[in-house]
Structure formats: C-alpha cells, structure tokens
Amino acid sequence: MQEIEYKVPTMAEMMSTGESPEILFWVGCAGSFDDRYKKVTIAFTKILNQVGIKFAVLGTEESCTGDPARRAGNEFLFQMQATMNIQVLDGYGVKKIVTACPHCFNTLKNEYPALGGNYEVIHHSTFLQQLIDAGKIKLQGGGEFKGKKITYHDSCYLGRANDIYEAPRSVLEALDADLVEMKRCKTKGLCCGAGGGQMFKEPEKGNKDINIERIEDALATGASTIAVACPFCMVMMSDGVKNKEKEDSVKVYDLAELLLEGMK
Amino acid sequence: MQIIQQILFVAAFGLAAYFISKRIQIIKKTIQLGRAEDRSDNPSERLKTMLRIAFGQKKMFDRPIVGILHFVIYAGFLLINVEVLEIVLDGILGTHRLFAPVLGSFYAFLINFFEILAAGVLLVCIVFLIRRNITKVERLQATRHRELNGFPVIDANTILFAEIILMTALLSMNAVDSILQERGNEHYHPVGSFVISSFLKPIFSNWNETALIIYERTAWWLHILGILGFALYVTYSKHLHIFLAFPNTYFSNLKAKGEMPNMPEVTKEVQIMLGLAQPDAEASTEIARFGAKDIKDLSWKNLMDAYSCTECGRCTSSCPANLTGKALSPRKIMMDTRDRLEEVGRNLAVNGGIFVEDGKALYGSYITSEELRACTTCNACVQECPINISPLDIILQLRRYQIMEESDAPASWNAMFSNLETNQAPWKFATSDRFNWANEVK
C-alpha cells in the first residue's frame, strides 16, 4: 500500500481556492472532542482520503446541531443552534452532508428542513456501504476478520428513528466477519441508555443501568467485537464492557475503524 | 305477548343508542380540546397504513402466537356482527331467523361459520384469562406495573368474561333452537343443526318444550342485551380500541420516527433574537404556553391515542427505562392522559359543557418529573405499539413545558445548556479546540 498524505481540508480553505467539495463531513461534538470518538473521526477521514473523496469539514466553524437541547426540552437553545448552523451551511452552499453521528444525522436530515435547512444527509454507515457497493473500497478479504465473531448494536437514531438497519450490517458482512445478532436487534434493539439527553445526566432511580442490561445481550453472543455506529453507543457499550471486566477480551469499535482495518 | 317483546326490544335498543351517542359526543368533544395538528396529507398512504396496521393487524403478528389468538377474536367480532344485524331486525319485527328463508342453504353455511368463530372466540377468551391470571404474562401484572392496579385489571377480565357469556349464550341458543325445530314448533324454522351447537344438544334433550322456549328466549335476550351493554361499556373501557384503532392508524405519524415536530412559535422569537427578523408590531400579545402541561396543550392526535390505547403493555415491556426499574412506563403515560381526559369530560358534563378549573393538570397531578426524565427517546414504545400510538410525543411535549415554562432541569442539564450557549458543544471544551483532532490524522 502506498503512503498517502492525509489531508483534512476545511470549507473555508476550499472556498478561498474556489473549490467546492463533493461532501461535507459533519464531525459532531463527540467526534471533535471525545478522545475515544476522535479515533473514529480520524479513521473515517483516512477512508475518505484513501478512496479519494473530495470532502471538507467545517473545522472550528462547526457547532452542536442542538439535538441534546431539543430532546431535553430546550427548544429555544435548539433553534438558536440550528439557525446558526443553517446560516453557516448555506453560506458555503453545502448540498450533501455525511456524518458518523446518528443524532446529528437525524437532526440535520429530519429537523433542519422545518427551519429552512435543506441538505442531502447521509449517515456514514450508508455512505460506506455505497462506497463498498460501488467498488471504491476494496477489501482484502480472508484477512484478520475472517470467521471472527462480531455483533452489531443498533443505534436507536439510525434504526427505529430512521429505519437504517441493513447498511451497517452490510459493511460488517463485507469484512467477511461472522456477524452474530443479539437477542434484541433491529426494530427490537435495546437502547444503550444515552439518547434523549441521558448522556448528559445521571440516570433516574432504578435497579440497573441500561447499558449494563444491553452489554449482557452483547456478551451473550460470544462476540469478541461489538460494532457500533454512534458516539453515545460507543461510550455506553465501552463502559458496559469495563463494568463486566471484559476489556481484555471484548472490544468496541465503530464501523469506520473496522473497515479501515479491513482495507489495510 | 310477542308485541310486548318487540316494544321492550325497541326500548332497550333506543336507550342503548342514546347513552352510547352521549358517550361518543363526550369523547369527541374531549379529543377536540387538543390543539390543531394537520394529519390530512397523503390520504392514499394513510389509507394503506390503516388497512395494513388496523384491518390487517400487521404489527400484532410481531408476536405470532398472540397475533393469531387476537386475530380469532377480531375476526369473530367483525363477522358475528352480521348475525347481530339479523338479531336486531328479528327483535324489532318480531320475526325469528329473518334471513333463513331468504338465504336458503347459504344461511346454514353462514350460521355454521359464525358458530366456528364463536367457539374460537370462546376458546381464545379462556386462553387470555389464563394468560392474565394463571400463567401471569409479565406485562399484564398489576404487581409489577402499578398503572394496572384497580380498574384496569377488572376491566380486562370483565371484557373477557363478557365475551365468554355472549358466545355461550349464542351457541346454547342455537342448540335449543335446533331441538325446538326437530320437535316441530312452528315458530322455529327448520334450518337444521349447526356444527358446534349440535354438541350441546344432549344437555337440553330431556327438557320440555316450555323450558326450551324460555331458555331460548332468555339466551336470545342475554345475547342482544349483552351486546348493547357491551357497546356502551366499551366507551368507558380500554376496549375502545376496537373502533378507534381504525381512525388512529389512519392518522398515524407518517414522518421518520426520529423527527421532533418543530415549534414555529419559537422560531419567530429565535429569529428576532438573532437579528434575522423584526418584531411584529401587530403580533398578538397573547402568550402561548410552550410545551404541554395539560391535555389541551397536547394535539388532538395525542388525545385520540389515549382513547385508543388498550393497555397491552408492549410499549412498557420494551422500554429500556422500565426494564431497568425506572418509574417511566409508556403505557402509564397513555393511561394517565386518558384518565385526565375522562376527568375533564366529567367536569364538562356536570358544568354544562364549560370546563371549571380544578387545580389539576396532566403534568404534576398524573405524570411526574421523574418519569419524564427517565426517557431515552429510543422510540421502542412507538415501534411496538400495534396501532401506532406515540407515548414519546407526549413525553417530549411535557419535557418542553418543564424546561421552558418551569426552568426545571437537573443541574447537569443546565450545565449542558450553558456549555452549548458558550462553547457550542454540550461539553466544556473551547470552540477553538474543535478542530484539534485533525492534527492527529497522520
């Protein structure tokens, strides 16, 4: 494999040279700041570079979509964020957005149009599937994933919220891995516990944490890899693995990380 | 004698019709208390959804065994009503088996078919009673789900018992009818024995003719009065879903489940704050309530959802918060909404159609902050509902009220809000550091 000089162009840079990218990669707050999820952002950026997609990011001009504020009930704050983001996106004439965060994806795709922001929004699972289907991503096959048990944890905001169940699975199947389903999957998939603003507060009084309930589903499959496609799921599932003291034998990865590994 | 029966029947029918129509008016009036929401778009898609979900019961078959059992009762309900038409006409006209001479041999086929359905309904009702009370299906247990305590448990069992009584009356009436035909009683047309009730004939075989006629009449009256009573009872019961499932699925949310409806009243203010719009000098100064505190702040569809809920608990049994012991139960959200609606309905009824302030509200008097705060907005409840009810939509509107009207948020949410305001991220990181990750792309 030849050495690639990875680039992360910003919209501002593109504009100054009179170029316009094919896609805007919307990184999201977790993808920008969370140490674990930054690795996913980096992996996805590397894939974009390797495939030769002309992309750009907003860099420091990006800000939260407002999703957690809206779900918590703070409509004012959500609309402030959304309105400012739409001004930035429209200022750059953005048409197509790809994001690795299902919460950003849902908000940009379904909720910005009511505020005047109309874009084609694609989650990275669908985007990666499209690249594989189009033959732009070539996998070695028979590599380190062959026969390896991977289970996929459905993100609520991809699955039930937007009916995306197959794209992430087809990415994993392309890796030639042994995809095993949890007893609760697809439409019946159990939440990781972080949606609806729960990521930013302590859980209410109960007898168990939701991510523990969910990690038990995942561990019961016997998979050594838990694949996720959402930054919140990543945090919750990783914490679940730690809680069960399985960090040595069970790893949690995003689709983009696994795919990049398979491309080597 | 015959004419007295006819008069009594017409009186009973009229009385039932009167009380049922009064109940329908109250239900309609309370649903109309909700705020407007347009669900008139895309009629063909809506019709298809209704046919698939309500008429075809598609989501019921997600749990196939219960799906089939429920389908038997549903088919029985739809088809046995054809026979009720005959019973009603017989009652008014003083005839007996009015359709028999008209339909000829097809009549016997129909009655046989109805008898098989009736026997099916009877059996399934027994199975459902066993599931509720003996094998104790978890989602139906009041000991585990506080919202079922009291009336809901009685309601569920009452309906099953009522259906068993109705079906028993129907089948034994046919058995006695066949015996009376065989004995040559001229009032009873010879239409033959029927497939199920013929097995019941030995029970009555040594009864005398008068006793048989009395039994036949009693069973006939029990059946028809039972149906009239049941129709009225249904309007007070969770069983209202047998009618409301149809309009409720027609008016389903057709958008992506992840989308939260926009609040245009906020959009205007936000645009003014950001200097994108000028304050409208002529704008009404009436301050709308942000979010929902009580039923009239919810949309009419939320309220129809509440009347349509049959308390099956599929939502609650799939709710991650409920599964892990939190106070939230999506079913309780729907039941609370209906209870509050019924309370407002009674208030309207005793006060001549005008609501007199009672110091209560859905949020606070019925649904607590702790319940709302436990929701992860995962949409499992919405996905599971066999008739497309959305408890989540109500939860999120109540949350909006809680935050925007009462500024009642956990401290960590307030911190998240202020991080968003100052750093445009929910965590406390500087905006200028947002792009630092790119330095690690090597």
Describe the structure.
- Chain B: It comes from Arcicella rosea.
- Chain B: Keywords: 4Fe-4S, Iron, Iron-sulfur, Membrane, Metal-binding, Oxidoreductase, Transmembrane, Transmembrane helix.
- Chain B: This is Heterodisulfide reductase subunit C.
- Chain B: GO terms for molecular function: 4 iron, 4 sulfur cluster binding; metal ion binding; oxidoreductase activity.
- The complex is a heterodimer of chains A (264) and B (442).
- In chain A, helix 3 crosses helix 12 and helix 7 (124-133) packs across helix 9.
- Chain A folds into two domains: 11-129, Rossmann fold; 139-263, Rossmann fold (3-Layer(aba) Sandwich), CATH 3.40.50.
- In chain A, the strands form two sheets. In chain A, strands 2-1-3-4 form a four-stranded parallel beta sheet. Chain A has a four-stranded parallel beta sheet with strand order 6-5-7-8, sandwiched between helices.
- Chain A is built from twelve helices and eight strands.
- Chain A is of the alpha/beta class and 264 residues long.
- Helix content of chain A is 44%, strand content 11%.
- With 442 residues, chain B is mostly helical.
- Chain B has two domains: 2-32 and 63-250; 282-423, Fumarate Reductase Iron-sulfur Protein, Chain B, domain 2 (Orthogonal Bundle), CATH 1.10.1060.
- Chain B has helices spanning 2-31, 43-55, 64-93, 99-103, 105-133, 151-182, 201-204, 209-234, 241-250, 264-273, 300-308, 314-318, 320-323, 330-350, 362-366, 369-373, 380-384, 391-404, 411-423.
- In chain B, helix 1 crosses helix 3 (64-93) and helix 1 (2-31) packs parallel to helix 8.
- Chain B is elongated and about 100 Å long.
- The model of chain B has no long low-confidence stretch (mean pLDDT 94).
- At the A-B interface, helix 2, helix 3, helix 4, helix 5 and helix 6 of A face helix 10, helix 13, helix 17, helix 18 and helix 19 of B.
